[in-house]
Amino acid sequence: MGLTEGRGPKTVWKNPAELIRVLAPENPVMVLDRSRLRATAQRFLQGFPGLVTYAVKSNPHPAIIRTLVSAGVQGFDVASPFEIDLISRLAPKAARHYHNPVRSRSEIAHAVEAGIKSWSVDSRSELQKIFERVPVENCEISARFKLPVLGAAYDFGSKFGASPELTAELLREIAGRGYIPSLNFHPGTQCVDPHAWESYIATAAEICRMAGVKARRLNVGGGFPSHRIGGIEPDLTKIFDAIETATATAFGADRPELVCEPGRGICADAHALVTRIKAVRDDTHVFLNDGVYGGLTELPQIGNLDRLQVLTPEGVRRGGAPVPRVIFGPTCDSLDRLPGEVNLPADVQEGDYVIFHGAGAYSTVTNTRFNGFGQMTYLSVQSVF
Ligand SMILES: *Cc1c(COP(=O)(O)O)cnc(C)c1O
């Protein structure tokens, strides 16, 4: 049972407590609050000084894509034929930026056929592949560059992005061939420090000077933080303002149009992952019905989600004093453990539900069926609390 789209019953639960009382779910449930998703999208649309596109890979559920379109999102960052086709189907009027810098020739042909007009490259060989297959008319190619990592929870730069010198060369070639020259970067994910964007933007201006080319657009990537740590809300406005100021300072009157492609920053906080305690082994280790092979895959890389709530099967909140616990997932692999220890109420019991708030990004998509677990459902709620 998923979130049905125009077919069958459309149950919207009041909150996780209600669905726990009624359904007593034995398997993990991801819940989505569409009004919260819409509100977050609007914060980006109103605050970011340019075009807001959604990075589909973070959570491609059709309910999300449709909600974002209705909120006014007009573009999507797509990285595969599947994502291109998904957006073509669900958001046919939206822009699609094919920002995976490496593609097979058959993937390029698929994207040309689908009408993709915005590409990204970080190497001479990939640029040649695009030159050979992609019509030049009204077509943008963006050169992707990287810097040493600053402020990101996870390093994306180790896989993609050219040096500033090579990027200047690529930009010159792109413009010389008559394509629309643009630049892009991706500072990493869950970047709480605006400085991550500032140094990239200054380098982008430097690359344009080296190349002697005016970039049409500068895509500042994703990396916008979600709310992962209790009591510490990320300050998106501060990041938007820093991006605006850095662009004005670095480019002056010659500024490119800005684009961003947040994934996590848009989708994570509109979700909560409802898991159940299978056992409290000899009163110490807590075993959940979900773990690092399921909806909590990225925790070992980027740290615990500590916005937790524990509810009884009656949907009542446990209020015991916090006690640090080792939490294991359901599989037989000893890697299937949340990092370090996690504070749970002292009165936690087998059969209780542990709710991870802000778990909507890189969770449903990375859920595996390892050991036969991972049968996650996706439900709609009026509120995640
Ligand atoms: C993954 C990715 C994004 C989205 O990253 P978030 O941290 O989820 O915002 C944006 N752009 C590129 C190129 C990506 O690879």
From TrEMBL:
Enzymatic class: lyase
Record family assignment: Belongs to the Orn/Lys/Arg decarboxylase class-II family.
Catalytic site: 332 (proton donor)
SUPFAM superfamilies (UniProt xref): Alanine racemase C-terminal domain-like (SSF50621), PLP-binding barrel (SSF51419)
Name assigned to this protein: ornithine decarboxylase
Organism of origin: Paracoccus aestuariivivens
Cofactors (names): pyridoxal 5'-phosphate
Catalytic activity: L-ornithine + H(+) = putrescine + CO2
InterPro entries: Ala_racemase/Decarboxylase_C (IPR009006), De-COase2_N (IPR022644), De-COase2_pyr-phos_BS (IPR022653), Orn/DAP/Arg_de-COase (IPR000183), Orn_de-COase (IPR002433), PLP-binding_barrel (IPR029066)
Domain Orn/DAP/Arg decarboxylase 2 N-terminal residues, every copy: 37-267
Higher taxonomy: Bacteria, Pseudomonadati, Pseudomonadota, Alphaproteobacteria, Rhodobacterales
The EC number(s) this enzyme carries: 4.1.1.17
Cellular component terms (Gene Ontology): cytoplasm
Keyword Transport: no
